[in-house]
Amino acid sequence: MDFALSEEQRAFQEMAGDFAREEMEPHAHEWDETSTFPVETLRKAAALGFGGIYVGEDVDGSGLTRLDAALIFEELAKGCTSTAAYISIHNMAAWMIDLFGSDDQRERFLPRLCTMEHFAAYCLTEPGSGSDAAALRTKAVRDGDAYVLNGSKAFISGGRAADLYVAMVRTGEAGPKGISCIVVEKGTPGLSFGAQEVKLGWKSQPMTQVDFSDCRVPAENLIGGEGLGFKIAMAGLDGGRLNIGACSLGAAQSCLERAIAYMKERKQFGRALVEFQALQFRIADMASELEAARLLLHKVAMKVDAKESDAVRGHGQADRHRYRLQGGERGAATSRRLRLPARLSDRAVSARRARASDPGRNQRDHAADRGARAAGGVRGDGEILCGAAIGTFCSGLSSRRRRGSSTPWGWLCNPMGMILWLLVPRLRGDDSCAEATRG
Ligand SMILES: Cc1cc2nc3c(=O)[nH]c(=O)nc-3n(C[C@H](O)[C@H](O)[C@H](O)COP(=O)(O)OP(=O)(O)OC[C@H]3O[C@@H](n4cnc5c(N)ncnc54)[C@H](O)[C@@H]3O)c2cc1C
After folding, report:
1. Distance between CA atoms of residues 398 and 249, nearest Å
2. What CATH number is given to the structural domain containing 356?
C-alpha cells in the first residue's frame, strides 16, 4: 500500500498552501469582521485552477481527482475556512452541471464558473425542509419554453452574490422522484433575495434566503431531465461532504499548529508551556487523531476516484466514444489547467512526463464518469458516511479540545460538525432520502 503523494500532488498542495498563507490568511479576520465576500481573492484562486478543480478540462476545469481536491481544500482552509468552504460549494455546483448538464449547458455555464467570473450557489434547503430535503416545495410549472418557479430556498451560501443558482424544484409528484434541477441566472425577473443571515462565523460567505416569485426560467436551463433533481443534488453532496471534510481537517490542523506555536512562546511557572509533559501528551493525541482522520479522508477520496474508474467499464463505454467523437480530444490536447506558479511548474512538468505513457487518462476518466453517472451508475455511499464522519470528527476534535469537554456536546456544538451531521440523512436512517439515493 502506497501512502505517498505523487510529486504533482505535492506541488498542488504546496501551491494551495502558499495561496492560503499569502492571499487568504492575512485577510481572513477582516473578511469575517466586515462580512466581506472576497471576490478578487476568489478570482485569483480560480486563476490557479481552483474554480473547477474536478470539472473537465475541455470547459476550462482542472480535471483533477477527488484526492487532489481534498489536498487542495485542506490547504485552502488553513488560510480561511469559510472562504475555502464557499469555494467547495462553488466547485460542487459546477461539477453538477459538468456531469449532468448537456454539452450546450456545459459550454454555456462552465468556462465562466471555472474562472469565477461567475459564482455559483447550491439551492436545496427550504424554510420547511432541511434534513428532509425530499420534502421540498418550491414549485416549477412548465409553461411553453419556460418553467415558472414559485417558492423559497433558505440558508443559501453565496445568496445574492452568486450569478448562477443551481436550484432543486418540484416539477412532479411528492417525494424525491418529483424533483428537478434547474439553473436560475441572476437578473431573471422574479428572482430576489432575503436579508443576510446573521451568523456567529463563516461571514466571508454571504448567506441569504433565495425567493422565486413567478420566476420564468428558460426550459433549456433544466439539468439532466425532469425528475432527476434529487439524484443530482445528492450526487453533488457526496463530493461536497468530502470537500467539507477536507476543509474541517485544514481548520483543525491550523488550530493545532497555532496551539503548538503559542505553547512554545507562552511561559508559566518559569517554563514554556510546551515543556509540560501533560500538555505534550494532549498535543500528541490531537496530532494522532488528525492524522488518522486525514488517512481516512484520503482513503475515501481514493476509493471514490477508483469507483468512478470501475464504473466506466460498464456504463461509460458508449459515452466515452461519444465524447471523443464530439471533440473530447480538444481537452486532451489542452495542457492540464491547474496553473502552477513558475517555481512549481518544473516539478509538475516532470510529474506530467511520468504520466505521458497515458496522456488522455484524466479526460477519459472524466468523460466516462459523466457517462456512468448519467446512466444512474455510481453512488458514493462510503464517501457520504466517511466524508461526513471525518468532518464531524475533525471539527469536533478542535471544539472538544478547546472547550475541554468530554461529552458529545463538544462535537455537536461545533458549527462544521453540525452542518455535516445535519447533511447526512443516512447516518440517521432517513428512509425517503435513502430510497431516493439508491440510484
Ligand atoms: C453555514 C451553513 C451553510 C449552508 N449552506 C447551504 C447552501 O449553500 N445550500 C443549501 O441548500 N443549504 C445550505 N445550508 C442548509 C443546511 O443544508 C441545512 O441547515 C441542513 O440541511 C439542516 O436543515 P435544518 O437546518 O432545517 O435542520 P432540521 O432538518 O430542521 O434539523 C434540526 C435538528 O433535528 C435533527 N434531525 C432532523 N431529522 C432527524 C431524524 N430523522 N432523526 C434524528 N434527528 C433528526 C437534525 O440533526 C438537527 O439536529 C447551510 C447551512 C449552514 C449552517
Report:
1. 10
2. 1.10.540.10
